[in-house]
């Protein structure tokens, strides 16, 4: 696919900067209260806006995974735990910024589309048009149990529900016409009732009368972000997303994924140019090999084998202690699929694309958790990699990057050292092009 987009888009993933031992890394969280207080996040928001980032991203999983039959390891080691609802933090960060966007998560598996539409439209007002809805299909066992399910609902059931969820969202966001609001001081008429519509949706999963009781939001409809590696996930993103985030190994893997999404877009009657991709990965800015080695050494000191097992359990939806660390990733995943176990398929698919047939579980876990930073190097090296990956995958989207070490210092270093290189090359904006997230993201 050839796009006429000129600039790389950048989103900073702040989902787990407080967990997985990142808070222990020397220099991280210094002089800030630990997770929950907004002080650090407000400073990061200001940094990202200074760097002209498109947005900050918050994933969300509302469960505390059990490992080896207990939540003890998850809680003691803080592996993706605790996880506050990100929406209040987004609201706070929006107050200290003017152009930075925010991508926040709600589950289509366990939430109701009316609640999600009302929340996202309201948040779009609070942020003045700078929010995107990361609409996820959930696959973590303990999250399901928090919502009353004994086991994870069937994969196809979850995607069928998500497709209908999206249909209801579309109807609700269209239920108030853009010019419906009058606020006529003389007559006292608030809105033109002929431009406010019931949707009267009745389907397999949802029954919703409508309309959405929120004034039309600044973006009309908040931008929508989705992941999805399976055929069902790719089809859902191709049909409804403005932006997909994905993981793929190397430039060839990214190009292959982009081509697959393009084909899926065309199959549902959509222009592939309308769906960008941001490639997920972590980053570290270093002065050279010596500093990179030192960061690796410090990271190794934070991550025990016990933490690696728990981390694998979290993201795969399996008990990491029952997996042979010397087994090959591809063999384990094939066995899981053959047994019909229902873990988080998306992360298993990502693991398949990120490894070779002879990559062991131990090596994969360590590389992904401890060393895994696809965007690591000097500012020029990171810019080189991003430029190559951007063009190899169709020049439509960019990168969703998470700081691997040194929060907030690592983020500030990216803003101060990498952004200027990208700007000098004409790959990244020097100013925001609009007031809303959609305007900035679509701006050339």
UniProtKB/TrEMBL annotation:
Organism domain of life: Bacteria
Q: Where does FMN bind?
A: 60, 105, 155, 159, 230
The UniProt keywords, alphabetically, are: Flavoprotein, FMN, Monooxygenase, Oxidoreductase
Stored InterPro entries: Diverse_substr_monoxygenases (IPR051260), Luciferase-like_dom (IPR011251), Luciferase-like_sf (IPR036661), NTA_MOA (IPR016215)
Domain named Luciferase-like: which ranges? 37-396
**Which terms does the record give in the GO molecular function aspect?**
monooxygenase activity; oxidoreductase activity, acting on paired donors, with incorporation or reduction of molecular oxygen
Q: Which family does it belong to?
A: Belongs to the NtaA/SnaA/DszA monooxygenase family.
Name of the protein described by the UniProt record:
FMN-dependent oxidoreductase (Nitrilotriacetate monooxygenase family)
The top of its lineage is: Bacteria, Bacillati, Actinomycetota, Actinomycetes, Micrococcales
